[in-house]
Amino acid sequence: MPRYLLTAALPYANGPIHIGHLAGCYLPADVYHRYLKAKGEDALLICGTDEHGVAITLQARKEGVTPQELVDRNFKVIHQAFEGLGIVFTHFSRTSREIHHREAQAFFLDLYNKGFLKEKTTSQFYDPVAGTFLADRYLVGTCPHCSFDGAYGDQCEKCGTSLSPDELQYPRSVLSGSVPEKRETNNWFLPMDEMLHLPEFATYTERIARWKSNVKGQFNSWVQQGLQPRSMTRDLDWGVKVPLEGAEGKVLYVWFDAPIGYLSATKEYMDLQGNPEGWRDYWESEDSRLVHFIGKDNIVFHTLIFPMMLAAHGQMVLPWQVPANEFMNLEGRKLSTSRGWAVWLHEYLQDIPGRQDELRYTLLCNLPETKDADFSWQDYQLRVNSELVAILGNFVNRVMVLTHKLSDGHCGDLPTVEANTSHVSLELELAGTRQEILLAMEQFRLREAMAGVIHLARLGNRYLAETEPWKLLKTDSEAASRVLRLAAELCAELCIALEPFLPFTASKLSHQLQWQASAQEREAWWNPGSADSKGTVDARTRYLAQGHRLGPAALLFVPIEDELIQAQIHKLSPMNDSKLENDPKPENKSKPENTPKPDAELKPEVTYDQFAALDLRIATILSAQPVPGADKVLEIKVDLGDEQRTVVSGIAQHFQPEELVGKQVLMLTNLAPRKIRGIVSQGMLLMAENQEGQLVLVGPNGNGILPGDRVS
RNA sequence: GGCGGGGUAGCUCAGAUGGUUAGAGCGUAGGAUUCAUAACCCUAAGGUCGGCAGUUCGAUUCUGCUCCCCGCUACCA
């Protein structure tokens, strides 16, 4: 029997969890895990917070707390929110724990000792303004081969040559624009190009054919493009220390360290179970199936880099399946935490208490399994009211009420096959739907499986409509009793079927029926073939004993009122601005390898002389045109009164070129010229950024201002 | 810009190794019913399957080009 090792992407501890995270991986992981457990499989679901990386340190600095304080707080919020929604992990750890540091270092050393990590000493550039070492691509300068003044630290875009940063002439920092200092530093590289040919990895590559198209596509694309050695260490002080001599001030690259979190969390769990070697059954055993639940932004790391690390380490299983989901939008727009465009799980649980399954259901119905999906509050209301309330809740309620009317809640006999063909056709349809649910689950089509479960209740409603037990009640109470018994059996079956998806509802229903599924009953239901020969009433598994008394009827779901929806929509957009079309800086980064954004704090004070050094003037835009091969910059010609200049400005996604012509704008004129995309930019246009992240021209308000007029 | 994924009924989404009437749920309309949270049940209307070419006896399904959305990546002095 296979064992399953499920992982859900480690949530990054710089903020709480929102519905996008849930739909992307945590809810599917939880449902699949519950499904496997119900089926009687041996399965672990491992997760934990990822607490390292630059973004954490920046966020902490912004809030005026230490990184540790920040991650402590977020760990708690995240962990509690998951629990609140019934997302149950076998173990939920965190990468800041000692065991993780130890494991990550051991893993690193293992690869190091096997020769998979190649040290390179480089004169890395250090940005004295940003206070950080600069990754290769954060450097620009002149290419030594073709003299192109826009080459990056790793490659020249113009002539295609691969470069190392110290080959660059006249290097500059992309972050601050300052001239970086050269500082000696060592880093360790994973030779991904070579590792592609490891036998373990080559074997692994074959199974990718049966994966989802989005995952397959990304994987193939990377392999075909050719891989390059990638540095697995960083010059930073927050993270897992590099366990080598002379590596002070260096930590493991978060993408090296984070997936090892799956391993260290498993070990931590097994230690707590008093079974310190137990992790081997899941990580080293051939019959173990490693499944990574992730969002689409993580595909390359989970299908390429981490598997290579595992292959290099040796003896470890490589992913069996990576059912990566696309993204969940909110009311038609991308989620954006910085603009408050998100539904936060911890807030939902607080604002709408006792409605966990309503959220689980709506998200499950809309999982972005093949493409980006959309969550809207109206859809939420509609799904709850017309599906959970009207189909599922109503069916159960009808059965409960009728049974109490008929026999004070006591269950009668099961119908016989000959009694009425409605019974038989119900049985057949139930069995068919069950098979569809099972098939969908096997193929990670959770949305379809969820719909199938609701369909079971729909079949129940149809059965009641056909048999009309409320009429039989008066004419033939025996017949009524049999119909209701079968309907009650279906309620019990619903209990089992609902559990992985809507555990709170399953539990309520179970209580209401005064009945609980045994492990055998659950396993029989969830295993194909185990009960499908019992398609008729006489032979079917009986869940409820004859004469069993149901508990008092209680509503499983209550309709969502308009006011609730209005309040949530209102909360979502305090300034309901319909112009918010483009999202130039969407929040979606789960990892910190991105350019740090300037934070909201005031910068350190400057002297008057420093200010006076700036030459600020009003310019009039004469023309603006797109730059071929660049999405974000425009080539702009401006009039400064006695001269005209060309400026290359990164505003292409905020303005149409034609709408800029003739506008007056504030300009910094004595900034050092700089080539961008082969065009010399002589100065910088100054813009204001509003709360939605849109750029707005800054220009004179009064009259009589001419091009070239000074600003001071 | 490069690479990958997606664009299918009013809405949210399935599906199609190319072939008679392209599906589901919701919504809408009509009917039936009253046990039930005015819920359930039945029926119907609704789609040039992003656009333009091509291959083919036949394409929504294959090929090329193009537009739009998303991700990775590059670009923002």
CATH architecture of the largest domain: 3-Layer(aba) Sandwich
Give the % helix: 40-55%
Overall CATH class of the largest domain: Alpha Beta
* Corresponding CATH superfamily of the largest domain: HUPs
Strand content: 15-25%
Mean pLDDT value: 83
**Gyration radius, rounded:** 31 Å
Main sheet: strands, sense, barrel: 6 strands, antiparallel
Number of helices: 22
Q: Tell me the distance between the termini.
A: 76 Å
Task: Give the helix/strand class.
Answer: alpha+beta
The general outline is globular
**Total E-strand runs:** 25
Question: What is the name of the CATH topology of the largest domain?
Answer: Rossmann fold
Task: Looking at this protein, list some descriptive labels.
4-stranded parallel beta sheet; Isoleucyl-tRNA Synthetase, Domain 1; 712 residues; 6-stranded antiparallel beta sheet; alpha+beta; Rossmann fold; RNA-binding; single chain; 25 strands; 4 domains; Methionyl-trna Synthetase, domain 2
Overview of the structural elements:
- This protein has 712 residues and is α+β, with helices and mostly antiparallel strands.
- The strands form eight sheets. Strands 16, 17, 18, 19, 22 and 25 form a six-stranded antiparallel β-sheet that branches.
- Strand 17 and strand 18 (644-649) form a beta hairpin.
- The longest helix is centred in the middle third of the chain and has 31 residues, at 377-407.
- The protein is globular and about 100 Å long.
- Residues 156-163, 531-539 and 575-601 have low confidence and may be disordered.
- It binds one RNA strand of 77 nucleotides through helix 7, helix 13, helix 15, helix 16 and strand 18.
